[in-house]
Amino acid sequence: LTNTNITDAQEMETIWTILPAIILILIALPSLRILYMTDEINNPSFTIKSIGHQWYWTYEYTDYGGLIFNSYMLPPLFLNPGDLRLLEVDNRVVLPIEAPVRMMITSQDVLHSWTIPTLGLKTDAVPGRLNQTVFTATRPGVYYGQCSEICGTNHSFMPIVAELIP
Question: Which parts of the chain span the membrane according to its record (predicted)?
Answer without folding.
Answer: 15-36
